[in-house]
Amino acid sequence: MSLIYAILSALVGAPSSGYDLAKRFNPSVEGSVGFFWNASFQQIYRELNRLEEKGWLQAKSVQQENRPDKRIYSVTPVGEQQLCQWIAESEEMTPIKDELLVKLFVGHLVPHQTLLSKLENHRQQHQQRLTIYQEIKHQYFQEPQALSEALKFQYMTLLHGIHHETGWLSWCDEIMPLLK
Question: N or C end of the chain: smaller count of CB under 10 Å?
Answer without folding.
Answer: C
